[in-house]
Amino acid sequence: MERERGASPQETLQRLRRVASRTSTPPAPLDSRLVEQVVHGEDIRRPLGLAHPYPPVAVARSLRLQLRTPASFRGAKELTARVRLTATDAELSAGNGPEVRGPALSLLLAVSGRQVVREELDGPGAAALLAPRR
Length: 134
Hints:
Elements: H1 9-19, H2 30-48, H3 56-68, E1 84-87, E2 93-95, E3 99-102, H4 104-111, H5 126-130
Parallel strand pairs: 1-3
Antiparallel strand pairs: 1-2
């Protein structure tokens, strides 16, 4: 950040605009980059009250990656042993235990350790999913 930041916010924005059309990416699987884009995008948008319609396939792919990634790599694989997640807007269900239902985006944010409004999720496993993780 320090290296790429401009002398002013306007200069920083100009620099970002110059590289926005790049197609090169870090050496990581596409799905991990989708997680980064969606989750970190929501980190910025939600506090500002900005909604963004992500492509459903991108959110579902991101959620599937998080559900097969161990917690030691900031994923939620172990969580699926405690709750069953069911997306209400995608063909996606995974895990064992009390069910948690909700939009795939809300499930993705919750398993990624982000705060989710309780009303976004439903089911007997919702409290366990929303409990702070250690």
